[in-house]
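Checklist before submission:
- one chain only
- standard amino acids only
- sequence pasted in full

Submission:
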Amino acid sequence: MEKVHIDFRDQISRNKYKSFFLMLGIFIIIIVLGYVITLATDPGYFFVIMILASLFSIFYVWLSFYNSHKIAIASVGAKKASRERDKQYYDLVEGLTIASGIPMPKLYIMSSSNINAFASGRDPHHAVICVTEGALDKLEKRELEGVLAHELGHIASYDMRYMTLVAVGVGMVSIISQIFLRSLWFRGGDRDSKGGAIFMIIAVALAILAPIVVYFVQMSISRKREFSADASAVKFTRYPGGLIKALKKIKEEHKEPEKKVSKALAPLFISNPFKGWGNTHPPLEKRISVLERM
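Returned file contents:
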């Protein structure tokens, strides 16, 4: 059967559209969860605690967001790349920034034999790209260009800002659920009517299930952003073959465990740094299949 051609512009637009509605779903869950818990508890008591805890959570995420690139680089022990020693790395990124109109990010290299890379930063003016030594050693020029274009795609799409907003939503669901469930230990029997009991059962069920649901929604958004970055790489290079070959090499290599990488950083990488762990990335086979149709 002949493969149906996919326009990279349609792919970018479609993935942004899906990501928006997935994110909207998280905030609808917050509203529904808060409303049901309010019906099952004393509204004043619950919302005072929830607002204080939510403000603390948002402040923490905001602080992390503004220093995200520094935190990411420090956590993996990456070193700043040298223009003289890593000339091809610099030349490829400079060429891609000219093609994409993105400011030149700071470049780093992470000590790892695996082929991988990530981008971080709150906006294109405060962005970094980090590649592993394995990527520089094992990838040919066009393959490395495809990987770097993918990371610039994340930067151009403000993915860190997007994912931070999602993280705030996910964090708020978790906070609301935990406050409510823990408060049950201190509650009396003041709402023991039939109607109150029904709302209490619904609220407890939602408080248990909502964090699980939003976690999977968060992972789904992360996967959509990977498809968007792949499509952006094709937009910047006009050559899907480089990224396809790079992803095939990543798929075929024997991946060593990444001891330096925190699981919280896993969604940033072009491929999951923990083989077989989590759902932060779509299957490489599917990404390759989509790219082959562009």
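Reviewer check: The longest helix spans residues 194-237.
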